[in-house]
Amino acid sequence: MLKIEQDLDRFKQIVRGKIKKNLKKYISSGEMIGRQGKDLISIPVPQIDTPHFTYGKNPKQGVGQGKGNPGDPAPGQEGNGSQAGDAPGQHILEVDISMEELAELLGEELELPRITPKDSSELQTIKTNYSSIYRSGPDSLIHRKRTYKQALKRQILMGQYRPDNPVILPAREDRRYRSWSEEHLPESKAAIIYMMDVSGSMGAKQKEIVRLTSFWIDTWIRSQYKGLEVRYIIHDAVAREVDQNRFYHTRESGGTIISSALELCQKLIDEELDPSLYNIYAFHFSDGDNWSAKDTTKCLEVLENQLLPKLNLFGYGQVDSEYGSGQFLQDLEGKFQGQKENLVTARIEDKEKIIDCIKIFLGKGR
Question: Which of the given ranges, 44-53, 132-141, 314-323, has the highest pLDDT on average?
Fold first, then answer.
């Protein structure tokens, strides 16, 4: 490895260390999401700068020359801070990191276990291997090296090869062609269904917490599967499927009927997301208010009898709100505490608690 490559590799390790050290801060900040591209994400990393020379501006005077008292400013640096200065400040280096690397750092920082997809033998991908050689085939698959060797061998055996004039002329019988074989491999796909209460009690602060939490859940699960489908459901008293933009920016003023979201989630799975083909993850975010105890009973029945048997994981995140009672979290834990391995709950008091929620949701490796 060249010296410059060693230096570059070392610099990348320094950057990686800085990102990992500040990952908790990035998790609770929406800054990274706004810098996300198709495959890379830009991260502002403070206190790192590439090495460079800085030239002085005052060759006649310098620190330590002439009279002065402790605390006096160096020549050329007088000022009371009321005007613009010319001294360098803290440099922030913006680096690009792939989503795969970001997921790896997230897994290391939170000590997340790798997800073990359930067996999905019905969903297969075909892998083509060109590993065989045949005497016939299309000209596009001719194996030139094997053809040349066969022609050389034939001319040597027949005494036609002349070292002083090594001309190799392949005959038709010398031609060799590549051939393929197909290998059927099982493949796992995943689907995430996000559900969010958008009633009047869920404000902009609560939605920002949901947005950040969803981004990091997405980042980790996407790194574990080749294919990922994401669906979004919002609800107040009525649930509806929407796109990502409307999911994060819609606010209603009606009441809350949580069962409407769970029933629509069940309908999506039954009609479009076959559990034998998909590993399905469902996450519901709310402030814990529900319209009635009767609807809460209905929610628990839908979860127990319809959703949980089909899901890899159901995560309920309760976002604290000054208008929310938080009762639904108590009802869930009272019904399922310790009974269903694929049901997890978390209380998200503020942005600082997002990292704890992610670890609770993803810490079982389901």
Answer: 314-323
How many helices (H) and strands (E) the chain has is answered by: 11, 10
User: What percent of the chain has pLDDT above 90?
Assistant: 26
Distance between CA 236 and CA 197 in Å, rounded? 6
CA distance 9 to 93: 16
Which of 111, 142, 162 is where one domain is finished?
111
b/e burial code for range 16-48 (CB count within 10 A of at least 16 → b): bebbeeebeebbeeeebeeeeeeeebebebeee
- The pLDDT of residue 331: 94
For residue 353, the domain's CATH number is 3.40.50.410
Give residues with Cβ within 8 angstroms of 237, minimum separation 6: 199, 254, 255, 256, 257, 260, 291
- The answer to whether residue 119 sits within a structural domain is no
At 102, is the secondary structure helix, strand, or coil? helix
DSSP string, 51-83: ------S-TT--TT-S---TTPPPTT----SSS
Distance from C-alpha of 262 to C-alpha of 282, rounded to nearest angstrom: 10
Query: Predicted confidence band at 136 (pLDDT cuts at 50, 70, 90)?
Result: confident
Residue 84 domain-assigned (yes or no): no
Q: Is residue 80 part of a domain?
A: no
Whether the pTM exceeds 0.85: the reply is no
Q: Is 7 exposed, middle or buried (0-12, 13-18, 19+ CB in 10 A)?
A: exposed
Residues 229 and 317 in one domain: yes
| Structural domains counted in the chain | 3
Which pLDDT value is given to residue 8?
59
Q: Say if residue 40 is in the same domain as residue 7.
A: yes
Residues 13 and 133 in one domain: no
Angstrom distance (rounded) from CA 333 to CA 327: 10
pLDDT of 118 strictly over 70: no
267 Cβ neighbours under 8 A, 6+ residues apart: none
Three-state DSSP class for residue 323: coil
22 and 134 fall within a common domain = no
State which residues form the domain around 329.
189-362
Do residues 220 and 252 both lie within one domain?
A: yes
